[in-house]
Specification:
Blueprint (H helix, E strand, L loop, with lengths): L1 H6 L4 H13 L3 H14 L6 H14 L3 H4 L4
Helix pairs in contact: 2-3, 3-4
Length: about 70
């Protein structure tokens, strides 16, 4: 996944995939950072709804419900 992000640095799906891997391994802070970077590139794109949702789940996993429900 890191190779994919290096080859296509503006590919939102690469950031999303890497964020999913980080979240699955328990690195929710890293997942939030990856998802935030993806959303900065394309906040209204096809994947944005899923990325916002998954970022919220990572915030919940860290015990931060206010950030989980924030609009942006």
């Amino acid at each position: 996944m890191a190779v994919q992000a290096k080859l296509r640095p503006k590919d939102v799906s690469a950031y999303s995939n890497r964020a999913n891997a980080r979240a699955e391994s328990g690195d929710h802070k890293g997942a939030i950072a990856e998802r935030t970077a993806a959303l900065k590139m394309d906040p209204n794109g096809v994947l944005s709804l899923f990325i916002y949702n998954d970022r919220g789940l990572s915030y919940l996993a860290l015990g931060n419900p206010k950030s989980a429900i924030a609009k942006r």
